[in-house]
Amino acid sequence: MKKARSGASARRQIAGTTPAAKVPTAAAGKVAANSRASRGAGRRETILAAALDEFSARGFEATRLDDVARRAGVAKGTIYLYFRDKETLFQELVRAMLTPVIGGIEAMGESDLPVNLLAERIVDLFVREIYETRRQDVIRLMISEGRRFPKLAEFYYREVLSRAVDAMRALLTRAAARGEVPRALVEFPQLIAAPALVAIVWSGLFERYAPLDVRRMLKAHIDLLFVPGRVA
Amino acid sequence: MKKARSGASARRQIAGTTPAAKVPTAAAGKVAANSRASRGAGRRETILAAALDEFSARGFEATRLDDVARRAGVAKGTIYLYFRDKETLFQELVRAMLTPVIGGIEAMGESDLPVNLLAERIVDLFVREIYETRRQDVIRLMISEGRRFPKLAEFYYREVLSRAVDAMRALLTRAAARGEVPRALVEFPQLIAAPALVAIVWSGLFERYAPLDVRRMLKAHIDLLFVPGRVA
DNA sequence: GATCACTGACTGACTGGTCAGTCATTTATA
DNA sequence: TATAAATGACTGACCAGTCAGTCAGTGATC
Fold first, then answer.
1. Residue with CA nearest C20 C1'?
2. Each residue of B11-47: b (16+ CB within 10 Å) or e?
3. Measuring CA to CA, which residue among B197, B194, B63, B55 is closest to residue B137?
């Protein structure tokens, strides 16, 4: 990661530090199809999409911004109109992709369905919204590169993981009170999510040697944990 | 990953492709303390140790061989006397660190102790031999970089993972026959190891924000799976 | 609606630092 | 002394980030 030259950019730092962002939603409104405004609005998303492809194929270091630019159909300089530097681009990508799922996760924590039923909904949410989605790649990137981006790891922990864990814990606490779930799970909600992590890591590394039926594995897992007549 | 120049090295490819290797054992025998032979024998291990430090701190791409050399107290050229290139160095490191644990894992698969007891031994083996060891870093590297080293991923799958999975499955099959374990586990032995993966990933990314008592989590997990009076 | 000055998004050749890999030379041993 | 081992200055590819220049689009004016 080359150190930025001292008198760095910031010549006209447009959007690199915009707080929120959403990548998939494309066209932004009512403006004429090819007007300057509407094209400009799509640029950022186009670049993020290209960055997702390149970063998830090659990892952070090995990704060349020339390639991102080419894939986005844009000159390299344009990237720097929207993102301060490569690192910011990466972080914004993670933010943009993962922020939207937070709500869904927290909503789950408030439901009062019996756990075994709720568990199936959560599995379904994971498979449809993450595992069968580009978000899987983003989480994989997070796992792979997170260590060298403490800021990003903290963001991810604060904005995504800790919320998911808390929601899970709330849900499990209520279920445990009803005797539907052993108390140990309340202390380590990670145990519920562990197979999801396995799914993501496994599919990235070993899918070709030993494919994994993720849905069935997750189903098996909840069947193991939520045995109706078990000793709590 | 700069592409290796075409007429690449291989000038005198000494050890880069030696099949087996063990990194930690230092002094190799009976030779006079500072003889060339004995020093030469240690070089490879010294370099691997330095490489472990650098790779696990920075990842594959960001690691500079100049730093590895400095840390090993060796000139950069020396590295190329023992390893064909950076990639080979990385792969040999993973090989050297993980090959030794295979035996221990397979031995576990043959025991006929009751599962709940055996499970505690396995947890103990994992914590002592991997989690509290530099091997944790190597596995983390494997997870992070494995995708871009299909050869290495295959090696790891073939020589380590598949053996572990098979051993686990054998063990679980017998336990299931005795009714100690639900049959679903036999189909997805990954479910047993999942929390170990969580431990490694979590400690790498979030330890500072939310420390995790890994031993207790793993204990909680086996208590959840191996409830004595459960319905098989 | 035709003309034109103005704007700023976009471009891409360029710079400067970086680093994997090389090899002529030096050093240590047998 | 002969030889293998080790060295580290060097080369060349490489790429993040820069910035002077271009030109499509805009909107004011006649």
1. B2
2. eeeeebeeeebebeeeeeeeeeeeeeebeeeebbbbb
3. B55
Residue of A140, A157, A165, A205 to mutate for B, most B C-beta atoms under 10 A: A205
Q: For residue B14, which nucleotide's C1' is closest to its Cα? A: D5
From the Cβ of A132, is strand D under 7 Å away? no
CB-based contacts of A20, cutoff 8 Å, min separation 6: A99
The residues, ordered by sequence, that sit 6+ positions from A205 with a Cβ below 8 Å of its Cβ are: B142, B143, B146, B147, B153, B156, B157
What are the structural domains of chain B?
A: 9-97 (1.10.10.60), 100-225 (no CATH)
Separation CA B172–CA B229 (nearest Å):
17
| Distance in angstroms (rounded) separating the CA atoms of residues B98 and B109 | 18
From first to last of its 232 residues, chain A has per-residue pLDDT tens of 333 333 223 332 333 333 333 343 333 333 333 555 555 558 899 999 999 999 999 999 999 999 999 999 999 999 999 999 999 999 999 999 999 988 888 888 888 888 888 899 999 999 999 999 999 999 999 999 999 889 889 989 998 999 999 999 999 999 899 888 888 899 999 999 999 999 999 999 999 999 999 999 999 999 888 766 554 4
User: For strand D, is any atom closer than 7 Å to the CB of A210?
Assistant: no
